[in-house]
Design a protein that fits this description.
Blueprint: H1 9-34, E1 39-49, H2 53-60, E2 67-76, E3 80-87, H3 88-98, H4 111-136, E4 140-142, E5 146-150, H5 152-163, E6 169-179, E7 182-192, H6 194-206, H7 214-227
Antiparallel strand pairs: 1-6, 2-3, 2-4, 2-5, 3-7, 6-7
Helix pairs in contact: 1-4, 2-5, 3-4
């Protein structure tokens, strides 16, 4: 199997740029939803072993508060899952924006707020998967979104139960929402199946087929070796 740890800076930049393209499209839709200009950017991407994901979830939770999440499955030619996560305080801010309320008004997420936040997650992830589909040249489809709100250890238990030993890595996209005086952070976590991870890595490697860069060529050779 290809090793995602061997991706170089150029290849990671390609993944990050794909996310930024998707998020720029999503920002237009979210701006219309909240009736004000919103920009969505992805300033960084991290690769983690699935077993290391708890540390990321714990950091997102902000002093052991709950995490608000939207879960979607990837289907068709590219399989896996995406978690779109907000720290609880960020989810409250987003709820206020969606309900046209002063920020700080929402104290808990009722059914209407949960539905609105789920739709934002669906919009952002859909835009990202459209960009990913363009990058890979294959069809990437999504299941209906599911809202979830719980503590990091519960999220991690669900992820472990869902994927077990099948999925090895998680791609964590740090996502910033900016609008007027409001700024808050969210994250979407891509959990590709082993086969889809190979598709992604093979595509990134083949994109540098004529490169003289030693690191890229080393990575290409490692992929070729796994196919023998």
């Amino acid at each position: 199997m290809a090793r995602i740890e061997m991706l170089n800076e150029i290849q990671l930049d390609a993944l990050q740029e794909t996310a930024n393209i998707g998020c720029s499209h999503a920002a237009t839709a979210v701006s219309q939803m909240v009736n004000r200009e919103i920009t969505i950017t992805v300033p960084s991407i991290k690769i983690r072993m699935l077993k290391e994901l708890y540390q990321t979830l714990d950091a997102i939770s902000e002093k052991n508060e709950k995490i608000v999440g939207v879960y979607l499955e990837l289907t068709n030619e590219f399989l896996g899952s995406i978690l779109f996560l907000y720290p609880y305080k960020s989810a409250l801010t987003l709820s206020d924006l969606l309900m046209y309320q002063e920020v700080g008004t929402t104290k808990q997420l009722d059914e209407m707020a949960q539905s609105a936040i789920t739709e934002v997650g669906n919009v952002v992830v859909s835009a990202y998967t459209n960009a990913l589909s363009e990058l890979l040249g294959c069809s990437v489809m999504l299941s209906p979104p599911t809202f979830s709100m719980d503590f990091p250890n519960v999220f991690m238990d669900k992820i472990t139960k869902q994927f077990g030993a099948k999925n090895t890595h998680a791609m964590i996209f740090d996502t910033l929402f900016t609008g007027e005086d409001n700024l808050f952070q969210s994250f979407f976590i891509l959990l590709p199946s082993p086969q889809s991870l190979d598709i992604l890595l093979q595509h990134l490697a083949s994109g540098f087929a004529d490169s003289c860069d030693h690191e890229v060529n080393t990575y290409r050779n490692s992929l070729a070796a796994t196919e023998e």
